[in-house]
Amino acid sequence: MEITGTPASILRLRDLSFDLSLRTYVMGILNVTPDSFSDGGKFISFKDALNHAEKMHKDGADIIDVGGESTRPGAEPVSLDEEERRVLPVVKELEKSGIPVSVDTYKYSIAEKALDCGAHMVNDITGLRTSPEIARLAKEHSVPLVIMHMKGTPRTMQENPTYGNLIGEVSDFFKERIGIASSFGLGSESIVLDPGIGFGKTVEHNLELIANLRRFKLFGMPLLVGVSRKSFIGKILDLTVDERLEGSIASAAIAVQQGANIVRVHDVKENVRALRIVNAIMKC
Q1: Among 111, 198, 229, 260, who pairs with 255 as Cys (CB 3.0-4.6 Å)?
Q2: What is the spatial distance between Cα 37 and Cα 268, in angstroms, rounded to a whole number?
Q3: What is residue 132's DSSP assignment?
Q4: Residue 65 · residue 83 · CB < 8 Å
Q5: Does residue 150 contact residue 157 with C-beta atoms inside 8 Å?
Q6: What angle separates helix 166-183 from helix 134-141, to the nearest 10 degrees?
Q7: Is 195 helix (H, G, I), strand (E, B) or coil?
Q8: Looking at the DSSP assignment, which residues form a beta bridge with residue 210?
Q9: What is the per-residue pLDDT for 1?
Q10: What is the predicted pLDDT for the residue at 8?
Q11: If you count DSSP H runs as helices and E runs as strands, how many of each does the chain have, helices first?
Q12: C-alpha to C-alpha distance for 109 and 119, rounded to whole angstroms
């Protein structure tokens, strides 16, 4: 695949389109898991999950990212049957309600069934390392694929992560994974890149990635960044997970200034308001 360095302005999600030249788009996090680092267990019931998704949509989320397996440091994988039981009923119901859905999975069968239920995006934290064929699914269903960088697996990623050249290594990873996605027919206009804040990175690594996001714009693809409530914020401010709102918003604002097109957040209303100000300032 040719790397043009010309940013795509329109991201198409089936019958929807995000005009990236207009504003930053917000992805609301819906963890239907008992053990996620921030809100594990809060939305494990079907009713609670739907209510929270509807609230996030009302608060301004452009798309809801539904995940059925925790990716916190040290997390163990769950079975296909269990992930399907958690995720698919929620995806089906949200699709009926007209709420755009992203499925947060690296497993082919989960991605396939979620797309068959109407999901608008696939968010693969392994960047096609586990199931490269997910790229073909994205192509067939005309949905974007998020390729995220992660060093190791959720179970091992925070065991002394080291890099010789962080930005260079993440860039090399993206180039390799974009090539694999291309081999399955997925075009650059349907690929979103995520540097994987908190996934196999130290506090310093995360700060360096946020400060240098524009380096990844050379790929000519939208950037998605997830900084919400991450541990680097807690370590800098010495705060627990439920006290990291201000740090999350500040990090998201800087990420947008540095080129992020989509931000993945827990606190939708507050981030939407803050980013409207950021976008207004940037337009001047």
Answers
A1: 260
A2: 18
A3: T
A4: no
A5: yes
A6: 60
A7: coil
A8: none
A9: 43
A10: 65
A11: 9, 10
A12: 13
Among 3, 12, 62, which residue's Cα sits nearest to residue 221? 3
> What is the set of active-site residues?
230, 264
Total number of residues shown for the chain: 284
Contact assessment for residue 17 and residue 142, using Cβ atoms and an 8 Å cutoff: no
Contact 275, 260 (CB under 8 A): no
Q: Which two tokens stand for residue 116?
A: 């068959």
Give me the helices (H) in the chain, please. Answer: 46-58, 80-96, 108-116, 134-141, 166-183, 203-211, 231-237, 245-257, 268-283
Q: In what order do the strands lie in the sheet with 262-265?
A: 191-194, 145-148, 121-124, 101-104, 63-67, 25-31, 262-265, 224-225
Can you spell out the DSSP letters for 255-274?
A: HHHTT-SEEEES-HHHHHHH
What residues have CB less than 8 Å from 4, skipping those under 6 apart?
188, 220
Q: Which two tokens stand for residue 169?
A: 């290594």
Handedness of CA 106, 108, 110, 116 (dihedral sign): positive
Q: What is the pLDDT of residue 7?
A: 59
Q: Which amino acid is at 36?
A: S
Task: Provide the phi-psi class of 127: left if phi over 0, else alpha when psi is between -120 and 50, else beta.
Answer: left
Closest CA to 202 of 237, 172, 158, 156: 158
- Note whether 48 and 12 are within 8 A (CB): no
The tokens of 5 are what?
A: 């360095």
Instruction: Tell me how far apart the alpha carbons of residues 162 and 90 are, in angstroms, rounded to a whole number.
Output: 38
Which residues face 123 on adjacent strands?
Answer: 104, 146
What distance in Å separates the CA atoms of residue 118 and residue 206, rounded to the nearest whole number? 33
Give the pLDDT means over successive 10-residue stretches in the chain (284 positions): 60 96 97 66 80 97 94 78 94 95 97 98 97 98 97 73 94 98 96 96 97 97 97 97 97 98 98 98 94
- How many Å apart are CA 103 and CA 1, to the nearest integer? 25
